[in-house]
Write a structure and sequence with these properties.
alpha+beta; Rossmann fold; Hnrnp arginine n-methyltransferase1; 2 domains; 7-stranded antiparallel β-sheet; 5-stranded parallel β-sheet; 8 helices; 17 strands
Length: 305
C-alpha cells in the first residue's frame, strides 16, 4: 500500500491494545484510500498473476492485512480455503459484505485481529501480505512476515509457505529536484508515480540497490546504506529518489518475473550541492522498516568526495 492514512477510527482509538506507535506507523488505512489501491492496475494484475502462477489448484492461502478483501477474492478463485486477517473493524465488515457479494464468502474465513499475532489453524501453501509502503516505511510488511515465520515454524515445522511478494528490492538514486511551487520553496517528502516520472525530479546518476529482501529468508528489520553515488549529469543535487520494486513471483520456466513498483519516494537532502559529471558522494542512512519517513530524512548524510 502506498497511500497515507487518515486518523484511526473511533473504535480503534479506544482499543487499549493499539499503541501510539501503531497509530503513527500507517496501520490504519481508511476505506476511501482502498479505492485508490483497487484502481492500481499494476498492483491488482501483479497479485492476480502471482496467485495464478504460485497457488496450486485446491491450495490454501493466508491473506495478512485483508483490507477490502480483494486479494482473498483473487486467491479464492483457485484455493479451497482462504484464511484472512484484518485489524480494522470497519474494514472487516466491509470485506465480509464484499466477499459475500462476490460469491466467495464460504471459502474465506475472515478474522478481526493483529497479523503479528494471528496464525491459521492449519498449514497453508501461500501467504499474501501487502503492507507495502515506499522504502518499506510506515507499514509493517517486514515485521509482520518475520513474526509470522517464527510462529509458523513453532506450530507447523520448518517448511514455510510461499510468500507473495517473493521479494522487495530497494534502491536509491541522486536527483535534482524542483521544490518551488508558485514561488513557494517546499523541500519536503513527495511521492512520484514510477510509471510517469515527473520533470520536477531528474536523475543525476544511476540508482544503487541497498537491500534485497527475500521474504522466504530471515531478514533484519534495520535497513541501511553506506556507499558512493556517482554523478553522470550536471545539476543541483537536492534530493534522493527511493525506489521500491516488489518481485511478486519468479517464473523459472519463462525466465522472468512478475513485478510491481511502489510509488517512488523523493526525500530532500539537508544541503543542496552543485554537481557535475564524474563527481562522487558518500551517502549514508539507517532506518527501521515500518518507521516514519521523518526518521529516514533525519538519518541521511551526504558528503562530496
Amino acid at each position: 500500500m502506498t497511500y497515507n492514512a487518515d486518523s484511526p477510527s473511533s473504535s480503534d482509538i479506544h482499543n487499549p491494545s493499539i499503541t501510539e506507535a501503531d497509530n503513527l506507523l500507517g496501520q490504519y488505512i481508511p476505506i476511501h484510500y482502498h479505492f485508490q489501491m483497487l484502481e492500481d492496475e499494476a498492483r491488482m494484475s501483479g497479485f492476480e498473476a502471482a496467485l495464478n502462477y504460485l497457488l496450486p489448484d485446491g491450495g490454501k492461502v493466508l491473506d495478512m492485512g485483508a483490507g477490502t478483501g480483494v486479494l482473498s477474492f483473487l486467491a479464492a478463485q483457485k484455493a479451497t480455503k482462504v484464511y484472512s486477517v484484518e485489524r480494522q473493524a470497519d474494514l472487516v465488515e466491509c470485506a465480509k459484505a464484499l466477499l459475500t457479494k462476490n460469491g466467495c464468502g464460504d471459502k474465506v474465513e475472515l478474522v478481526q485481529g493483529d497479523a503479528r499475532q494471528y496464525l491459521p489453524p492449519e498449514p497453508v501453501d501461500v501467504v499474501v501480505c501487502e503492507m507495502l509502503h515506499s522504502a518499506l516505511l510506515r507499514e509493517k510488511q517486514l515485521e509482520v512476515i518475520e513474526s509470522f515465520k517464527q510462529r509458523y515454524r513453532e506450530r507447523f515445522g520448518e517448511q514455510l509457505p510461499v510468500f507473495i511478494p517473493n521479494a522487495s528490492i530497494l534502491g536509491v538514486e541522486p536527483i535534482s529536484a524542483d521544490f518551488c511551487f508558485q514561488g513557494y520553496q517546499a523541500p519536503i517528502a513527495f511521492f512520484e508515480d514510477p510509471g510517469a516520472l515527473s520533470d520536477r525530479y531528474l536523475s543525476l546518476g544511476h540508482p544503487k540497490p541497498y537491500a534485497i529482501l527475500e521474504y522466504q529468508n530471515d531478514n533484519p528489520i534495520e535497513l541501511s546504506f553506506d556507499g558512493i553515488l556517482s554523478i553522470n549529469e550536471q545539476g543541483s543535487f537536492k534530493a534522493l529518489r527511493f525506489i521500491t520494486k516488489n518481485i511478486m513471483a519468479m517464473n523459472l520456466e519463462q525466465g522472468n518475473t512478475i513485478d510491481w513498483m511502489n510509488m517512488n519516494l523523493i526525500l530532500p537532502i539537508k544541503q543542496p550541492v552543485d554537481a557535475k559529471a564524474g563527481d562522487q558522494f558518500q551517502v549514508t542512512f539507517k532506518y527501521d522498516a515500518g518507521g516514519e519517513i521523518s526518521n529516514l530524512i533525519n538519518a541521511i548524510e551526504v558528503i562530496k568526495l
